[in-house]
Write a structure and sequence with these properties.
It contains six helices and four strands; from the N terminus they run αβαβαβαβαα. By secondary structure, the protein is of the alpha/beta class. Helix 2 (45-61) links the parallel strand 1 and strand 2. The model has no long low-confidence stretch (mean pLDDT 93).
Length: 178
């Protein structure tokens, strides 16, 4: 794991940063009126379901209405970019969260699937302007995937939902070219 206390953003620094610039943009954690799609991989679906639970918990905590949440299932992580693209082009969502798990095995299949999934997700958001959050776990072991999808504040699905709300609200501030 690369995150540590030393790499965390220190909220105490925010005031100093705000005072040193003319415009300081940050997306708040506000979910009312935000339309969210979860594009989910069914392969390693037990892990994916745990990520979905974490994401849904955070979305509900921040006011996203259940009727504004869509779940779309793909067979696996490799297919998630196409599902995300379809959701983005449908213009019925403000943000897409991709959730799934690619767990290293005995072959090079992992490298191809994980890398192409990540590239495809990035391509979708850049081409459509709809934020697409990469919530596909890429782990060496099943145990690592299970630890990253625990039903607590460390759940990566929960973290992705937070990122999704921040991105939508940041883009809604209108300071960016369309």
């Amino acid at each position: 794991m690369t995150s540590s206390d030393a790499t965390e953003f220190d909220p105490a620094v925010e005031e100093r940063l705000r005072e040193g610039v003319g415009q300081y943009l940050v997306g708040p954690l506000e979910g009312r009126g935000v339309r969210v799609a979860l594009a989910c991989g069914r392969f390693n679906g037990g892990v994916t379901t745990r990520l979905i639970d974490g994401a849904l918990d955070l979305l509900r905590e921040h006011g996203v209405d259940r009727n504004d949440i869509t779940i779309a299932w793909a067979p696996g992580a490799f297919e998630l970019p196409l599902v995300a693209r379809g959701l983005a082009l449908g213009e019925k969502v403000d943000v897409i969260i991709t959730l799934g798990a690619v767990i290293r095995g005995d072959t090079g299949h992992y490298d191809v699937v994980a890398g192409e999934c990540a590239r495809g997700v990035q391509d979708v958001q850049l081409a459509t302007g709809v934020p697409v959050v990469f919530g596909v776990l890429t782990t060496d072991t099943v145990d690592q995937a299970l630890r990253r999808s625990l039903p607590d504040h460390t759940n990566k699905g929960r973290e992705c939902a937070q990122t999704a709300l921040e991105m939508v609200n940041l883009l809604r501030q209108g300071a960016f070219a369309s």
